[in-house]
Amino acid sequence: MTELTKDRAEAIGGIFSHFDVQSAPVSFSENRTGHINSTFFVGTSDGGKYVLQQINTAVFKDPRGLMDNIFAVTGYLRGKIAESGGDPSRGTLRFIKCRPDRDGNADKFYTDPEGHAWRVYEFIDDVVSLQSASSPEVFADVGRAFGNFQMMLSGFDASTLCETIPNFHNTPSRYADFEAALAADTAGRASGIPLEIDFVKKRKDVCSFITDRIARGELPLRVTHNDTKLNNLLLDKKTLKPVCVIDLDTVMPGSVLFDFGDAIRFGASTAAEDETDLSKVGTDLRLFRAFTEGFCDGLGGSLTENELRCLPMGALVITLETGIRFLGDYLAGDVYFRISHPEHNLERARNQFAIVADMEKKMDLMNAAVDEIIRKKN
Ligand code: ADP
Ligand code: GN1
Ligand code: MG
After folding, report:
1. From the alpha carbon of 273, which atom of ligand 2 is closest?
2. Same domain, 331 and 357
3. CB 37 within 8 A of CB 53
4. What average pLDDT does the chain have?
5. 309-359, pLDDT tens digit by residue?
6. Which end of the chain has fewer CB atoms within 10 angstroms, the N or the C?
7. Half-sphere exposure of 166 (CA within 13 A, CB side)
């Protein structure tokens, strides 16, 4: 958490005042965990707490479509959570519109004079978001929560959602973007990374593992979260039980492998996403097994046999894809992911590739873990 300078706090307070909150903003801090949006926590004079986010419009080019998606999805989830006897005020995010204009119309986000898009939602209290899984038990619950999130959205009409980032988990298309970044070599960095480029090129064929199966109808499309990093789930501060899935910007139609894969690449890793000592980096099989069991359970046994069998390769492909994205951004001059030092994206890419290499070695063991779950199910 970073405190803001007086000028910055004033500017943030000014932006916040455009939203339909009656009490005045009095305290401000910034959370720099996410790689995409700018996130501020705002406290108000009556003790209220809110999250104010600047939507990264270089990444999300249609903030209106994005916010329509989010209002629709959170509204739907609120109904589902209430139906099942849960507490919707903690189980899903509640976004707040701008103050209504003279005609009573209220926008779902605020555009400042510089053209930046902002949104506000209620802060959920007494929670933590973890950067690494603290135990297999906690990670099994995380799996259950992400599985359940998808399950709750299974009746949602996906055709009403706009595609906030086209081809988000289309790995061959990510590979093509990488090749284009390599050819352009905008930042003049390509000559310094022959090993990483070679690592990616050798795995070109693997990239179409998921998309081929979707195209052949072997993997169904569901409504997926698509960014199931452990820190996109809030957990109860005391019990570490899951409370709320956040970061809903990429909720779109997708394969279950996207959510499974992204959660494993980050949460089952033995090290942080930007750990540079690669001897520490790999996939923890106990965490893999725990998450997989929880995830399948959260999905209420609704995964098809094909989906189940593809889970381990799905994790590998999404990890490879993320590495390719980090490396592509390094080549392009760090225009997408927030970095804290010049080599950050390269370090992240190397880290993801170390996980991929480790997964390649452990593929039989990961498949055996899934086999065991299938046996128990049948
Ligand atoms: P980004 O898209 O940049 O990742 P997120 O929406 O994930 O942005 O928010 C960044 C971080 O802010 C999260 O990882 C979490 O730690 C924290 N955060 C976001 N919303 C809340 C909330 N309602 N309550 C507590 N912490 C939150
Ligand atoms: C970004 O927004 P955040 O930090 O939760 C990215 C994900 C990547 C992830 C890698 C919209 O997630 O796709 O997997 O970084 N989100 C977007 O850490 O691109
Ligand atoms: Mg996030």
Report:
1. 18
2. yes
3. yes
4. 96
5. 999 999 999 999 999 999 999 999 999 999 999 999 999 999 999 999 999
6. C
7. 4
